[in-house]
Amino acid sequence: MDECFAQSDRQRFVMDQFIKKLLVIIATTSILVVILIFVFTFLESSEALENIGLGELLTGTVWRPGTSTGDQVGQFGLVPMILGSLYSTLGAVILGVPLAILTAILLAEVAPPLVREIIRPAVELLAGIPSVIFGLFGVVVLAPMIRNIEIDGNSGFGILNASIILAIMILPTITSVAEDAIRAVPDSYRDASLAMGATHWQTIVTVILPAARSGIIAAIILGIGRALGETMALIMVIGNSIAIPTPLNDNPLTILLATARTLTGNIAVEINYAADVHRSALFFTGVLLFLLLLGINRLAHFVMRERQPS
Predict the structure, then answer these.
(1) Exposed site from 56, 125, 150, 233, fewest CB < 10 Å?
(2) Residue 76: beta bridge partners?
(3) Cα–Cα distance measured from residue 232 to residue 224, given in angstroms and rounded to the nearest whole number
(4) What is the rounded CA–CA span in Å between residue 179 and residue 154?
(5) Where residue 246 falls among pLDDT bands split at 50, 70, 90?
(6) Cβ atoms within 10 A of the Cβ of 260, count?
């Protein structure tokens, strides 16, 4: 009998060690794949760094690969695409974050179970819709509506259209993480506030949201990363103009109606026919995006480590 138990213990020990080693191998492989992708992308961008220079790539205001002739290198300034990504993402944050936070509050604190079971799947469904569908919505529905704004040069496609689409697309990410952060606030905080005579809404605003602040900030950061990485939907609605976005008239707000191009869109549009330095410059754009998104994700991870009190 003792021998049977000993043999069973040995088998469990061997299986346990095997599973641990297998998990370590899988995790290591995932890390190596990410590192290899970055190394490959960086090596492919070396030609652009040598022939164009880091300063010109990051500060140049003209993207004109077609001027490359013989030994002459074209113009590969990424500023127009950087600004296109920045403006569309900023617009998405302004439009999407308040809606996402309010939705998270509704799901975590206000809505009865029946309503919650209807709203949460609907929000989660947004995360599973292909981005091309959002792009079609922008083309068919939003563009004609925006075109009704009677301003010369307004095509209906541009930063405003892209910002609305991105705001819808980042809604599930921010809502989900923010809801988890709000739910993680200890019930004792709520009970203490209510016991002191505060209303439910006062408790939410003055106690729960401040306590969940770090988690909510992390949710917003992850939403920004999601917006910066979007490609297909933006190609369809932002207009793809390779120029620094400028207002259409004397009103600075009309910059929202200007067409633009994002960093991700620039890669997707031109990679199929790019060659030599042009191709290398697109790979450098990928390196820039990789580092930017890595930094955003690390920032979110750091913020979430400091999240709700225990």
Answers:
(1) 150
(2) 63
(3) 17
(4) 38
(5) confident
(6) 28
